[in-house]
Amino acid sequence: MEKVGIVGYYQVKMYSDANYGRYEMIFEAVRGAIDMAGLKKKDISTVISCTNDYYDGRTISNCFTVEVGGGYMADESKVEMDGAHAVLYGLMRILSGNHKLAVIWGGSMPSCFPYHSTRLYETDPTWERQLAYVNDITSAGFQMRSYMEKYGASAEDIAKVAVKNHKNAAKNPLAVAEAQNSNITIEDVLNSDIYADPVTELMVAQPCDGVAALLLAPERQALKITDNPVWITGVGYSQDAYYLGDRNLYESKSMEMAGKIAFESAGIKNPQKEIDVAELFESNAHEELILSEALGFADKGKGATINSDINGELSINPSGGAISGNPPCATGLIRIIEAAKQLRGEAHGYQVNNAKKAVASGQIGMCAQNNIVFVLEGGN
Amino acid sequence: MSKLTQRKSLDYVKKDYVRTRTMPGNWYLASYQYKFNITHNNEFLKKLKDKKIVGNQCSGCNRVFFPPRLVCGKCLVKPDQWVDLRETGRVATFAIVYLKDPETGEVQEKPTVLIHQDGADTAIIAQLNPEVDFKDTYIGMPVKIHWAEDRTGGLMDIEYYDVLEDDAEDMNPKK
Amino acid sequence: MGRQVAIVSAGFSEHASKRSDVNMAELVSEAVSDCLKNAPGVDFNDIDAYVNGNMPAFEGVNLPELWMTDWMGARNKPLLRVTTGGTTGGTVAISGYYTVAAGLPKIDTVLAVAFEQQSQGDTSVGLGSVAYGEISVLNTMGIPYDQLSRLLSAGAAIGVAAYQATNYMSKTHITEEDLARVVVQNRHNAAKTWWSHLKMPDITVEEVLDTPYISYPLRYGMVCPASDGACAMLFTIEEKAKDMCDIPVYVNGVASVANESAVLGYDGSGTGQIDPSEQLGAMKSSELAYYQAGISFPRKEIDYAEVYSPFPNQELMWVEKLGLFEETTAPKMYETGVTSLKGELPINCSGGVNSTNAIGASAMERPAEAALQIMGKADNQVPKTVHTSIGHGWGGSLNLCTLMVMSDEPQRKWRR
């Protein structure tokens, strides 16, 4: 796979209830990314948006975003998954040689709709939805219990992840204010409201309003646009079975397969040693452990033993991860932006020293059914 | 590890049953609270009260938007100038919709028109004078704003458009 | 950079207004198995990745590709979901192309699937909600809801198409008879295609003109039906294509260009498309795709076209905008039989969207059928040899156009 450069990005600050119009927010993100790269509207050759009809309350949710998203008279398309999948499609378009600058934006405003009840529409309509036992909250409960049972992990191990991410979020100026808490303790997490036992409120990545945008360019153009590009050197994505009973919830087979392909194409043999930063989309705290184990950062069941603080042996989610703010359709995109910030040395306040290689992941579905992982490398 | 059973064969789709089980389900738009920012329209709405219409202009491509727009899609910038517009315009295109009254079951014919305001570069959906026979509507038909009696600074201040003659005095730009 | 992509197979499910014998997932697997049946050398192990799409608001299932993983054989395989409303099928086909062309690690063969089962949901609610958000803005700016119901009907596809039809008719001075003639040709063609929905081998122009108006100038007999159906296409790289089928069809150009949204505009701010039949997006996408394919004279070089035309006026408009005929001459071509099965430039020999419209799948059935015509495997095969064909899609709010140019030999111009 040839190298593709990230040449610009912009993320609107996340709010739990933003005082923004939808189109204003999208415009701010796209314009911000274009300004960062010092480009103009006419340089855009393709635009990939990432929205969801159910989250936006509109059929064809990208229909009226053409003007504000920079898609006027550009080759435009929409991915209806996570923002990271939109980056994948943008990457494909660049790699095909047809396009020289791809704008990828994604995001939604969950303050406008009841997020968790909308997630119910993802379930199998004839069986699971009627029973209403399975939704994103209960399935997270199944998964966490299964992980604890299989590997003997304690609830404290998982609460520790949530504590770390909340503390990191406090250093991230773009994180949603409710998630920024530098004094949080393990007891606070365990004693917060129960969502689906053993998952508690503070372990869940709470939905919030946000839009982010990213610019991709092929190697030659990227070097012309910026002196400090971040290269995407590997990518892998995979989909697991749908029914929870068909999978082993304590591990992530799809992430294992995605990681294997991504690391192979990036030429990484020992991810544990070679990767400096990992930005993982964990929709619940325990998923960070499962996903990092699947990526080979630790042995199965030993995810909690990694020193994953900022400037630990392998820094995981220095930005606070999805717990720092989870705008549906943008979270994976924000993970890629945060990883790129670390590699460019622009993560002021939560910068990992000497970050050379990073991974960023995105996911969609109950218990992270479809996973995607990118390997990023710092500039020249 | 449980044995993963991939369904490789597709023959399991049974042909011997006639109907699948049907399940009721809904998705409600009503549960969605749309958020808008219409601050860029305030200037325009305020002036409607005084029987004046304005559009905003993009300094990149000089296009005039009526009603005002947040962003010019061509240049990806916010339009920053205000331009006064005349009260006249032309029918850009039209369609006739057949609306059924839910109570009486009576079908009504209603023309809906897209009006291209003179001096603007965009067109907006609007209503013609209800006395106009829809059969007389044609593309390029000159029209003029009919202001509402009680103006509140909303879009309904333009009650409807009156139809003008082709050579009407109002259509003369020099006036 | 970039690889040459070939289509090796395409498959359809049976289309009908109510496929109550299957659910969504089973409908999809019907098309998938038909697609694989047409390519005997291929089985599920040869497929490296999937692309999937439909219009989710119509059936009430969000992200249905998660649920139907096993029905496509996509377990533990890469899968991407792409949707853009009416053009969904076209964008799915295009992203199938890009997935192969990109040369991602270990991805050579891609199965693209698009489907729609409209009988499971309420299509008019789905279409009405396209502009619902935009109409709500108008409400906050002072238009009461009872006035807005009229706008709501104009926001749906039939409303915008009626605007387009009026404009096109006033420009070309055609009559309703010209529109009816297009419908008759499509319905006759549909009768010879096994998967199509409205099969009417004996319909006449008079019968079409005898139906009542749905929205002037369009009549009930002229508009597309609402169907249930699915379509699948198999893409692979040039090197593998020859092993998988006899005549691989090479994809030489793709484009999906968006214009400003029509009629209401975002935030209810009106439209820049003052003439909705101008279609700059279609012209730009044909320019892009023909350039990639090295086509300079589309009128001479293209042998077969499938255009996305739920309404007859659109079929006339698209063939002109895509450069197949001179402006305003299309009605004449339909009258003289140039576009018929045995004509010089046959158009929509599958019956087109006018006869079968499973919205999510329709825009994919166009390139699929155009590819089958090159392979010589189409049901209603044209008698002449087809070397180059195009498959077109339209959607969004009159603003997005997808185009795929296919040929029996690879001739893609590499751009860098």
Q: Name the average pLDDT of chain B.
A: 79
**How many strand elements of chain B?**
8
Of all chain pairs, the largest interface belongs to:
A-C, 74 and 78 residues
Percent of residues in helices of chain B comes to under 10%
As for the CATH topology of one domain in chain A, it is Peroxisomal Thiolase, Chain A, domain 1
Structure annotation, total helices of chain B? 1
Category by helix and strand content of chain B: mainly beta
CATH level 4 superfamily of one domain in chain A: Thiolase/Chalcone synthase
How many runs of DSSP E, i.e. beta strands of chain A? 12
The description of the largest β-sheet of chain A is:
10 strands, mixed
Q: Characterize the quaternary organization of these chains.
A: heterotrimer
Provide the CATH architecture of one domain in chain A: 3-Layer(aba) Sandwich
- How many helices of chain A? The count is 13
Measured between the Cα atoms of the first and last residue of chain A, the distance is 18 Å
Q: Please provide the ordered H/E string of secondary-structure elements of chain A.
A: EHEHEHEHHHHHEEEHEHHEHEHEE
Shape of chain A: globular
Proportion in helices of chain A: 25-40%
Distance between the termini of chain B: 85 Å
Question: What does this 3D model show about the protein?
Answer:
The complex is a heterotrimer of chains A (380), B (175) and C (416). Chain A has a domain of 127 residues: Thiolase/Chalcone synthase (Peroxisomal Thiolase, Chain A, domain 1), CATH 3.40.47.10. Chain A is built from 13 helices and 12 strands. In chain A, strand 9, helix 12 and strand 10 form a beta-alpha-beta unit. Chain A is globular, with a radius of gyration of 19 Å. By secondary structure, chain B is mostly beta strands. Chain B has one domain. In chain B, the strands form 2 sheets. Chain B has a 5-stranded antiparallel beta sheet, with no helix packed on it. A 3-stranded antiparallel beta sheet of chain B has the order 2-1-3, covered by helices on one side. By secondary structure, chain C is α/β, with parallel strands linked by helices. Chain C has one domain: 3-Layer(aba) Sandwich (Peroxisomal Thiolase, Chain A, domain 1), CATH 3.40.47.10. Chain C is 39% helix and 17% strand. In chain C, helix 6 runs antiparallel to helix 7 and helix 9 crosses helix 14. Chain C is globular. The mean pLDDT of chain C is 89. Chains B and C meet through strand 4, strand 5 and strand 6 of B and helix 1, helix 6, helix 7, helix 8 and strand 5 of C. Strand 4 of chain B pairs antiparallel with strand 5 of chain C, so a sheet runs across the interface.
